[in-house]
Fold:
Amino acid sequence: RTGACHCHACFKGPQCAELATDCILNLSFGDPTMFESYWLALGSEATTSIPAWQGMSYFAHKHNAFLFVDPYLEQAIRELHSLVGNAVTKNRHIVVGVGSTQLFQAAIYALVSLQQPQAAAANSSTTPTNIVSAVPYYSAYPEVVSFQQSGKYRWAGDASKFQQGNADQKAAYIEIVTSPNNPEGSIRQAVLQDDASSYGSTIHDLAYYWPQYTPITATADYPVMLFTFSKITGHAGTRLGWAIVEDVRVATKMSEFIRVNTVGVSQDSQLRATTLIRTIINGHKQAKMKQKHVKDNGGEEEEEEEEEEDHLVDCNTQQKQWRPFFHYGQTILEERWRQVLLVLEGHSLFNIPTYDQAFCSFLHKSFQPNPAFLWLECTDGQDCHQLLLKHRIVTRDGPSFGASSAFVRLSLLDRDSLFDLLLQRLASLR
Ligand code: PMP
Structure:
């Protein structure tokens, strides 16, 4: 197997090609290794090589040292959003971070720092800002918010409940809106309405607002939007995220957090991310040009174009991988969902959410969302994590997301072989 120098627990043998059928299948993380096969097929096309002298300075840009963002990366990010149409970047600031996990903390720091003096002046309250998100919320939020035991903010759980609590109503809050949501892939809006008697802000975590996961139906336009490279291309190990920020004061405070926390963001990572984003953009532009060319020639493809694609052959399957990245991702995830639904159809043990079709302005077709995770509910209120554990499937349990133990989350982003093993095991549970 390429890309790994030791076998996964579910594989054995010299080439790690034999299935260890009784292995523990751990799908509790959202490790996006599914996309490996795309990049493997592209080969050197998207490889970054960095000369030893490059990127040595702390500062990625001498005129913009404050935001630590490489100007080429910034340009590529803006172009990518403009191509996909999923978020506005015009007149917005781009702040990069070590994954969006760091940016999430930076955004809380920034918003709290700007919000609290205002709140304190108005009602002489110095209570910590409440960080809330509607249940089921991404399991990392409570952990990250509570980790440093800050006196300035605290995890306050379900955003829907917070709105109802009288005592807290006037307290400052930050609502995290994750859309599509992790764990269950729903498209979400803020549940709390800011009014004159509260000091509220929102952070929109749009990690999965890309065409492989959901139809792009509108250009997101919120004060603070977080994106992560981990879920776009699958390069979680590059540890790169970005925030699109409207207010320069918030962007500056976020940069301050990143300066104090990690003194900027790896320039090697930024370079790699730039190459990968450029590869995606070029792939889509070429496909569009090719489509136009074919149309102009009355539907006839030319021989030389066929030849040009020959280097894009999947080393594992020998299949041609000519599709641009988002077309590829959407097709593969759609096929995974088709298989999962087939296995779970009429299953008496589980309930799963249903999703409505929508028209995707980027892929020019209607389809149902294909979330990165399967959010299963065990019928009869059974402890779903324990039930699946008995069948050697490790999940992330409902309570981690503020939900009941009848729910679990399973990653659908793992490599083909492990996804197939999941299907086999779910099928055997019938
Ligand atoms: N937000 C959401 C909703 C996520 O699912 C994840 C990753 N699981 C992150 C943020 C964190 O991403 P990163 O790898 O960039 O820290």
